[in-house]
Amino acid sequence: MSTLSTEQLLHAYRVMRTIRAFEERLHVEFATGEIPGFVHLYAGEEASAAGVMAHLDDEDCIASTHRGHGHCIAKSVDVYGMMAEIYGKKTGVCQGKGGSMHIADLSKGMLGANGIVGAGAPLAAGAALAAKLKGNRAVAVAFFGDGGSNEGAVFEAMNLASVWNLPCIFVAENNGYAEATASNWSVACDHIADRAAGFGMPGVTVDGFDFFAVHEAAGAAIERARAGEGPSLIEVKLTRYYGHFEGDAQTYRAPDEVKHYRETRDCLMQFRERTTRAGLLQAAALDAIDAEVEASIEEAVARAKADPKPSPADLLSDVYVAYP
């Protein structure tokens, strides 16, 4: 914790607070019926995205999941552009054609959220291969859930990453449920990270409610990849505060399960307590970030609602690659 500067700590908190405010506002807005398509919220998992992305820049690539808003925000994708995209507006980062599950911004190294479970791992492996061939020390990170950890595409990507010694980091965000199926039933081993041994790479399981634990594990894996020492697997154990999708009745969860996590394990709460108790940050500075973030989300929603939708003339734009 002491290795991070005040600026870095404040940035980490801002990222996590922005993700939380963005998702909780979407939870409210989706209920109005104005947002098209499905929405899968990342609230509760903020420490994972913030802890990993703190080590990356725009040259590094990530491949996300259907629950990708937090990854986008932590990778510095524009919050207003994301909100407009989710509302299906022309001003969105994908001109309103991607929606919640398909936000991408290649200028930030965000290869895209993905509605196909586990499909991001091969994309990240490809990006890592490109980085290796270019010799630019860039890395690629593949995020997937406990359900995705059972997908063959993930296994194939991990195998190739080891065979080719790629600068690729695989991050399994184990929130306890693959849709409604508990991971302690559907995943054969005790820890997803144990599977790393089968692919000849290091594997570690970390507390996903602890930003500093994620930050340390990700830093070690990313530095290892940049040094040419190959891929790693990180399992981040955490929980999501909302259903698999907006509208999920969550009958598979125990009574007060989410309430317990919010009150005792919340990553934002723990971050505030640890940094202020150690004298590294002042509560007033964190309160100011809270207010600034709330104002930015309010502005993003207002602008997105007022923006135009794509027109019929936009139907075939950005569908095919145009070659000179």
Automatic annotation (TrEMBL):
One of its GO terms (biological process) is pyruvate decarboxylation to acetyl-CoA. It comes from Pseudomonas delhiensis. This is Pyruvate dehydrogenase E1 component alpha subunit. GO terms for molecular function: pyruvate dehydrogenase (acetyl-transferring) activity. Keywords: Oxidoreductase, Pyruvate, Thiamine pyrophosphate. Gene3D superfamilies: 3.40.50.970. InterPro entries: DH_E1, PDH_E1_Alpha_Subunit, THDP-binding. SUPFAM superfamilies: Thiamin diphosphate-binding fold (THDP-binding). Residues 16-312 form the Dehydrogenase E1 component domain. Its cofactor is thiamine diphosphate.
